[in-house]
Design a protein that fits this description.
17 helices; two-stranded antiparallel sheet; homodimer; alpha/beta; TIM Barrel
Amino acid sequence: MPADVAFLQAAHCHRPSHTPVWFMRQAGRSLPEYRSVRGEGSILQAIKVPEIAAAITLQPVHRYGVDAAVLYSDIVVPAHAVGFGIDVAPGTGPVVEHPLRSHADLARLRPLDAEHDTDYVVQTVRLLAAELPVDVPLLAFAGAPFTVASYLIEGRPSRTYEHTKQLMHTDPATWHALMERLVQHSVAFISAQLRAGAGAFQVFDSWAGALSRVDYDRFVLPHSRSVFEQLGTWHPGTPGIHFGIGCDHLLESMLDAAQGHGHGTPVLGLDWRTPISEARRRMGAGLVVQGNLDPALVLAGMATALEGTDTVLADNVLTDGTRHPGHIFNLGHGVQPETDPGVLAAVVAHVHEVTATELGTGS
Amino acid sequence: MPADVAFLQAAHCHRPSHTPVWFMRQAGRSLPEYRSVRGEGSILQAIKVPEIAAAITLQPVHRYGVDAAVLYSDIVVPAHAVGFGIDVAPGTGPVVEHPLRSHADLARLRPLDAEHDTDYVVQTVRLLAAELPVDVPLLAFAGAPFTVASYLIEGRPSRTYEHTKQLMHTDPATWHALMERLVQHSVAFISAQLRAGAGAFQVFDSWAGALSRVDYDRFVLPHSRSVFEQLGTWHPGTPGIHFGIGCDHLLESMLDAAQGHGHGTPVLGLDWRTPISEARRRMGAGLVVQGNLDPALVLAGMATALEGTDTVLADNVLTDGTRHPGHIFNLGHGVQPETDPGVLAAVVAHVHEVTATELGTGS
């Protein structure tokens, strides 16, 4: 690992030259250059053209100078690629014509052969590995089994996850069989991206916060742990981030799941509901975290965004006045489409400037 | 207070004859007898006929034998009643034609004269006070200032509350002026219901969980505390419940706000993300709580609902094997429209049977 790759240094809790920063959903609708190349229709079609997917992935790297690229992709890509019957409706999100409700529906979820079924993703990663600056790793990502399952089962955006919870409680055999299939998808999808040149990965369990911790531990944790364990076996030393929204009450369990990964310190993604200092008080002073500026504060304009940025950075300062090395700056959720790219650019510059001054070790 | 009113006994942490139970949104779309009297159109029109609103409020009391009635009403009633320009669209929720975005918009929020502006609500409460069984108190309710503000500002359902957060951060003077007006609405609305015969109240800050605790403490807590303080002054000894969804990270602050109420122990509403025992570990062994069965488990059928009920009841059992007296059984969110009333009836019977056996003091 090159000593000057800030993202990897922070992920391994080695003191980086500056606090690295990237944004979930940094590649996408908030950028005018994205809208000019993207065209209409589902993201699932757009990402099938590697040159376009790679160009979109590079756009925020060029514009913002972020410390990591994140593949332009979607968490339902594996289920789509095996022919389950799922699409992403622009403005709505994942939609399923025939939602998964019974054991028989599992037949539509065959194992993912990532090199074949998602060859376009592998090609995109190869293009990016050749084009990205050496100090900007590419992040692979996949959905965690629970969040992907919730899309397949609900069939449309949900606030209650009632069908998902019904299946796990009333037919646990089908539930666990489903989760095992989705573990294979997550692992195969991320692993193929890592083999093609991605340098780290993130597992999105975006909606796990809808569960009580008892239900998370019983129905989800073993499967998410399996994802991290398998990736740790195949890709030792590769940083892995575990992230969900509104998961404050689940963080200890999500860290537990990520510790299955054999790379040393796992990275825990936080949203703005959990202060960084509070997370370290709960889970240990050595905790490596990613986050956690409220994306709504970025929408509120330059002054509010930079004030919020300072609050997040201050939350990572230890009692002796030094910054904790294990912090990757990010939003606490994805970039909203209406976000002003100029504000995000200012946030990146501000994080770099403030933290380079204080952490700088020279280069 | 009659010694045999289980709801009031539990709210005051005196040992009740059984654990009292009611359900948020128990009056409404899940009941066929509701659908037969309700007619079409906005709830804001339906509640203007006191005989209909009272009949709807009584339906779940008769069907389920719950220990409290909750007024059939809506948290946007005060803003509607003063002519702000808000309606409730069936299937969507509150919608505002001209959302509140600037100081000038405050002119549309004059003070609420509850006896006059919402005379139909006062009449409904009077009807109910005469008709309800003596051991079934009527709960008044209102929205907390933050949640009502979020409806007025966003103008339609939101997941991000971006305009609300923008206003509080970029124009705090307007924000606090707005909150002060909404404090007056909440207090006047609840107080009128209590004077007309309601026996307790609940303040819904349903969406406060979207905020970080720092922002809650700065922009919301003083106003919610003012609501509880004023009601405590005017109605000493009347139990008040403070409830939000996904507020696990805010509970200490929400309890703080409710402690402004001068009735002794405030009641903290919990959703299923916070175990009852964990809440008492964090906030004190004497904490009186309401909750917290996941409504999705009720949708999952009889066996799952009763299993979940037992889990909640067990979470209220102390290490010496006795039940904590300060527990009002409820769901962790409102009843979903598709809920089977037969399952809710069974939950009520089960809570009564299990807890009367163990707590019973004779009658």
